[in-house]
């Protein structure tokens, strides 16, 4: 008898988010970026071309600047990045709610720690013979969702007795996701003395050629934007879709958020709000890039009021959404 056979069968749920460095120092960031940017799902270039550029140039320069950015948002009490702190909160809250159903909830990062390998092994050792993989990306992309699945199945290659696995594709227009976004937007707007003239829906960008090659991410973002506009009775003009976080020289999906902000200030628009519906948790890309860099850009160009609407994080509606997804995806398993 092995340890698995001694335990009551349970269902495992593994929440997976992008990644995190272990600290804000040069080597921690370098290790993390090296793992992330060596993933062929993320950078579709031959290793022969890309690795010298990555190891020789990018990883000599970028970790310094990125380390300073992480330093500004780092959770010093827990010594973790915000993405790790919030993902852990989501998993722990779900675990409390789902304990009585014999569901074991864990969280992992695709890059860095806790690794998918360690957490799958933990779930297996806990006696989970059925595991739901829940990538925390509302919109499917090969660069995010698929690489999580790749990693899961790479780990499973080493198991003699594999658990049954289900993977979540996406939840781009799940009614509970749209409802949660709608309510967080309304909650924030109620705190303002004047309504913003525009509410930007900012999504992480993707190189255009990935979409041309068949990545459905752009369509998925449009699905979310359309559902949200519909729920809030807004037009495309009032609630535009924009992309952020461009990286490298490729042509990326547009319109780019910085260009749109510049265009608005040129038109005399003075109050905008920004939400990032593609992230289930606030992270460097929202706290630093949106709430800091784009706020400064808008204000420096004459804008008056910039409102950042936080991600769903551990809002009760986010937990409700994740519980709903889990119950839908494990149907027939209980
Ligand atoms: C070609 C490079 C990149 C692709 C493609 C890409 C897709 C992609 N990323 C996210 C979510 C996140 N990305 C984050 C940071 C980040 N992303 C890239 C590059 C690509 N992302 C880099 C180099 C970085 C590091 C920061 C930087 O150097 O600018 C994060 C934040 C992580 C954190 O710890 O806070 C998230 C989240 C999605 C959803 C996506 C595809 C749709
Ligand atoms: Fe990214
Ligand atoms: Fe960024």
From TrEMBL:
Transmembrane segments: none
The family this protein is said to belong to: Belongs to the ferrochelatase family.
EC number, UniProt record: 4.98.1.1
GO-annotated cellular components: cytoplasm
UniProt entry tagged with the keyword Iron: yes
Alphabetical keyword list: Cytoplasm, Heme biosynthesis, Iron, Lyase, Metal-binding, Porphyrin biosynthesis
Role this protein plays: Catalyzes the ferrous insertion into protoporphyrin IX.
Gene Ontology terms: biological process: heme biosynthetic process
Keyword Metal-binding: yes
Enzyme kind, highest EC tier: lyase
Pfam families attached to this UniProt entry: Ferrochelatase
Catalytic activity reported: Fe-coproporphyrin III + 2 H(+) = coproporphyrin III + Fe(2+); heme b + 2 H(+) = protoporphyrin IX + Fe(2+)
Pathway: Porphyrin-containing compound metabolism; protoheme biosynthesis; protoheme from protoporphyrin-IX: step 1/1
UniProt-listed InterPro entries: Ferrochelatase (IPR001015), Ferrochelatase_AS (IPR019772), Ferrochelatase_C (IPR033644), Ferrochelatase_N (IPR033659)
Major subcellular location class: cytoplasm
Biological source species: Commensalibacter intestini
Name by which UniProt lists this protein: Ferrochelatase
Compartments (UniProt record): Cytoplasm
């Amino acid at each position: 008898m092995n340890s698995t056979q001694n335990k009551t069968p349970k269902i495992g749920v593994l929440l997976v988010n992008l990644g995190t460095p272990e600290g804000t120092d040069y080597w921690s960031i370098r290790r993390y970026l090296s793992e992330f940017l060596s993933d062929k799902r993320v950078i579709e270039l031959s290793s022969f071309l890309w690795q010298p550029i990555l190891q020789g140039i990018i990883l000599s320069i970028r970790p310094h600047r990125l380390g300073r950015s992480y330093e500004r948002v780092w959770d010093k009490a827990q010594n973790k990045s915000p993405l790790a702190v919030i993902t852990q909160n989501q998993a722990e809250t779900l675990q409390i709610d789902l304990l009585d159903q014999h569901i074991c909830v864990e969280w992992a990062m695709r890059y860095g720690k806790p690794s998918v390998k360690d957490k799958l092994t933990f779930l297996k050792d806990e006696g989970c013979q059925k595991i739901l993989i829940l990538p925390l990306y509302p919109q499917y992309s090969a660069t995010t969702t698929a690489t999580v699945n790749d990693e899961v199945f790479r780990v499973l290659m080493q198991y003699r007795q594999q658990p049954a696995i289900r993977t979540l594709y996406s939840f781009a227009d799940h009614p509970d996701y749209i409802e949660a976004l709608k309510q967080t937007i309304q909650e924030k707007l109620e705190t303002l003395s004047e309504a913003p003239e525009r509410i930007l829906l900012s999504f992480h960008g993707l190189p255009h050629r990935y979409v041309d090659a068949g990545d459905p991410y752009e369509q998925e973002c449009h699905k979310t934007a359309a559902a949200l506009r519909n729920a809030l009775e807004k037009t495309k003009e009032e609630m535009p879709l924009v992309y952020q976080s461009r990286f490298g020289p490729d042509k990326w999906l547009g319109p780019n958020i910085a260009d749109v902000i510049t265009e608005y200030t040129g038109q005399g628009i003075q109050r905008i709000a920004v939400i990032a519906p593609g992230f289930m948790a606030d992270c460097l890309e929202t706290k630093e890039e949106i709430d800091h860099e784009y706020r400064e850009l808008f204000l420096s160009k004459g804008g008056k009021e910039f409102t950042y609407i936080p991600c769903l994080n551990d809002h009760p509606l986010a937990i409700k959404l994740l519980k709903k997804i889990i119950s839908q995806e494990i149907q027939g398993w209980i």
